[in-house]
Amino acid sequence: MIIIPTINLTMAATIAVLYAVGFYLLLSRSLMRVLIGVVVLGHASNLLLQLAGGPPARPPIIGTDPAAMADPLPQALALTAIVITFALTTFLLALGYRSFVLVGHDEVQDDVEDRRIGGQKADPVALESADDDPPDDSDDPSSDRIASTDDDVEAAATGERERP
Amino acid sequence: MAEPDRADPDPEQAWDGPRQPWLLNGDCRGPRHRSLLLEITTRAVFPTVLVFSVYLLLVGHYGPGGGFSAGLVAGLAFVLRHIAGGGGDLGSGRAVRPPTVIGAGMAVGVVSALLPLAFGLRVLESAKLGAALPVLGAVEVQTSLFLEVGVYLLIVGVVLELLRSLGSGIERDLEESGERARQ
Amino acid sequence: MSTVITLPVLLPMLGAAVTVVFARSPVLQRVVGVVVLAVVAALAGVLLVVADGSGPVVAELGGWAAPVGIALVADRLSALLLLVSTLVTLAVLVYAIDQRIADYGRGTASTTFHPMYLMLSAGVSLAYLTGDLFTLFVAFEVMLTASYVLISRRTTATRVRAGMTYVTVSLMSSLLFLTAIAMVYAATGTVNLADLAGRMDALPAELRTVLGLMLLVVFGIKAAIVPLHFWLPDSYPNAPGPVAALFAGLLTKVGFYAMLRTQTLLFSRDEPWTLMLVLAVATMLIGALGALAQNDLNRLLSFLLVSHIGFMLFGLAVFDAESVGGAALYAAHHITVLATLFLVSGLITRRTGTVALDQMGGLVGTAPGLAVLFVIPALTLAGIPPTAGFVAKLALLEAGVGAGSGPVAVAGVVIVASLLTLVALVRVWVRVFWGEPRPALPDDDPDDEVVVGTAATAAPMYAATAGLVAVSLAISVFAGPLTAMTDRAGVDLLDRGPYRVAVLGDAP
């Protein structure tokens, strides 16, 4: 059974706004904003899935008239997608916290090696003499906000617990 | 469980220290972090929420509910306990490691997916079991309930693991760094 | 048979559950991991034989017939890739176990490594076997979530940075995938691939183009085709050795498999695909040229990985039976050879203490075994005659030359890219194996899990790597039957009939 959804303009606009906001947040450096962006994008795509199953406010409950019922499959798909987004959100939270513990902020940084190679002249000597530049976060005053040598701190972020 | 160790009662904390090792197993937070109302409410609500989650689990095949939502509801009960009692409460009152709960849930799920093979059915196929129990009367159970039980355990385990790593872990880190700052 | 096809997914999941519960028993964890993967490899072999002999194997989960229920399908392509992937997963697991034993002793356990490794294996199996677009999404998520944990566990600051890039990019592609699924469902009302194949043809051409491009972008990010490849050379080199080998071997090829499956099944075309030809040229050249600029061994290999994705894209772009079959063979060969090279790179780094090419030297004298282990996969990757790489590349070139002027020009680029690959690998050989022997550098990051700069390397680590080299050699020894089979797979893919009949019954 193919249900051709008549596009409700309000829903279409809502989804468009959600996608725009989500992608905008995804473009920022802070992992927390990325996280919120992922959540918003997840909502956007779930809403789109719902819309693919028919207009709103027609619950697929057995006993009602099948013609007035939304397609239940997209709802099942959306439920699965929600579960997955839930798992990924928690993982991003842990990763952001881990980054905060290690380097004092949660910003996604540049690829240092790539910058180095991109910046070097077409001269093989430069390749030989270039040292490994350390990541440029040493001037960050907050980088030692939380000392991170404790094994439990590591366990906190990655769910990892090593035993001797 | 034996009476928790309260060998050197901090006079600042002892006046409202718990008499029973139920919510805060002797590992009491500072009075400024406590909320009496929340603790009492939690004590009342926690078992109710757990029972409700089991109800959702059982009713899930025909009505709204199911393993995932039931697991989340049960998880919320533990979150409430975490908020009321702090990290120490969950850390001390729990005998099972969260990863074990996760693993048990997954194992139940996979085994219940494979179990129909033993009855000549296909993988993940479900059947209806009926029985006349003495008090309850006729009871019908879909075998997909076992899969739901696995999902339930899995979700509860994940929430507990989150509370341990992100909840108590971060609290502990903050306290430690706060102590360092004061030194 | 329909039971056998579910086991490559269910057994690793069960193994993951057991290794989580018995996290305190490292011996049990190791035994479970190795046994499960060995059994899955055997099952994949059985599936391959059956699928090649008597057509696709189908399982309908829960007894719900397709297109309503979820179908698992093993045809020649998916069974072949499943077999090769599982063998690689097994070898890398043995390597990782022995590395841990060598560094930390027999008694240490890691709570997350084994469960996540097995979950990743389950996700990969499901991605190969599923006959359903949404289940493909779930499989990708299982696989990627496990990979997120594997790449960022026991993290240091560098690895957290690389992990963030990887996770963010993968998440974006996952959400795009979900959006594409919603669009596909809105347009056709089904997510079953075999059912979609029939309904897609009825859609207007513009709509098909939009849906095809969305899925292309989604799988393009996962497969690292060129404008979408930037995350790969940043993240893979920072993963610990065995994990990088696993990712390099499997993840991009799963993306390519999904692209191959969806484009042939849903968006069938009669002539070479110009857009994909352009992408293939860009991927081959930019990857190979990028590799030449690198000084970090792992980054160099990552760029070569990207470059050789382009070879497979070329096979897909020509879009006839031989070229698609050639792409399948190339993917199978590529899985083994890249995993081997990353494992060898791990062994080199372990010995020299660094990944910087300009700080190594003279290993041919101090570690001749390592030199042999490097040379064979390197020659294979470059496509030097008796090796599997040559066989696979020849299949692609033969298909391309017969397909018109555009593909012929791109076939020339294939040869140029192969030469550039050879140059990059010769550069590695000269820097690492020739020259003055240098003393091993001390471990510059002692906090992380990987111990480098030590001469104490367990023999099983070499054995696991040699096992993969043997798989790669086996591909070249059995080149005749394998090529014949991938040719049949290519015919199946373009015909679509057998797949649809197997899934939907006899009235597609």
In short:
Chain C: It is found in: Cell membrane; Membrane. Helices cover 57% and strands 1% of the residues of chain A.
Tally of contiguous helical segments of chain B: 5
Output the structural class of chain A.
Answer: mainly alpha
- Output the radius of gyration of chain B: 21 Å
| Class from secondary-structure proportions of chain B | mainly alpha
The CA-CA distance between the termini of chain B, in Å, is 37 Å
Got a strand count of chain B?
Answer: 2
Low-confidence stretches of chain B: 1-9
Give the low-confidence spans of chain A. 125-164
Proportion of β residues of chain A? under 5%
Assembly status: heterotrimer
Strand coverage percent of chain B: 5-15%
Instruction: Tell me the series of helices and strands of chain A, N- to C-terminal.
Output: HHHHHHE
The percentage helix of chain A is: 55-70%
Region (Disordered) (chain A): 114-164
Organism (chain A): Pseudonocardia humida
Transmembrane segments (chain A): 6-27, 34-53, 73-95
Keywords (chain A): Cell membrane, Membrane, Transmembrane, Transmembrane helix
Task: Provide structural commentary.
The complex is a heterotrimer of chains A (164), B (183) and C (508). Chain A is built from 6 helices and 1 strand. Chain A has helices spanning 9-26, 31-52, 72-103, 112-119, 124-129, 151-158; one strand at residues 162-163. The termini of chain A are far apart. In chain A, 32% of the residues are buried. Chain B has a two-stranded antiparallel sheet. In chain B, helix 2 (36-59) packs antiparallel against helix 3 and helix 4 (98-114) runs antiparallel to helix 5. Chain B is mostly helical and 183 residues long. Chain B has a domain at 33-109 and 143-182. Chain B has helices at residues 11-14, 36-59, 67-93, 98-114, 144-182, and strands spanning 128-133, 137-142. Chain C has one domain (4-501). Helices cover 75% and strands 2% of the residues of chain C. Chain C starts with 6 loop residues before the first helix and ends with a helix. The mean pLDDT of chain C is 88. Chains in contact: A-B, A-C, B-C.
Features:
heterotrimer, A: 164 residues, mainly alpha, 6 helices, elongated, disordered C terminus, B: 183 residues, 7% strand
Please specify the SSE layout and strand pairing.
The complex is a heterotrimer of chains A (164), B (183) and C (508).
Chain A: H1 9-26, H2 31-52, H3 72-103, H4 112-119, H5 124-129, H6 151-158, E1 162-163
Helix pairs in contact in A: 1-2, 2-3, 3-6
Chain B: H1 11-14, H2 36-59, H3 67-93, H4 98-114, E1 128-133, E2 137-142, H5 144-182
Antiparallel strand pairs in B: 1-2
Helix pairs in contact in B: 2-3, 3-5, 4-5
Chain C: H1 7-21, H2 26-54, E1 57-60, E2 71-74, H3 76-104, E3 109-110, H4 113-129, H5 133-152, H6 157-188, H7 193-201, H8 205-223, H9 232-235, H10 241-266, H11 274-293, H12 297-318, H13 321-352, H14 363-366, H15 368-382, H16 388-401, H17 405-433, H18 459-477, H19 479-495, H20 497-504
Antiparallel strand pairs in C: 1-2
Helix pairs in contact in C: 1-2, 1-4, 2-3, 2-4, 3-4, 3-10, 3-13, 3-18, 4-5, 5-6, 5-10, 6-8, 8-10, 10-12, 10-13, 11-12, 11-17, 12-13, 12-16, 12-17, 13-15, 13-16, 13-18, 13-19, 15-17, 15-18, 16-17, 16-18
Protein name (chain B): Cation transporter
Transmembrane segments (chain B): 62-80, 101-124, 144-163
Subcellular location (chain B): Cell membrane
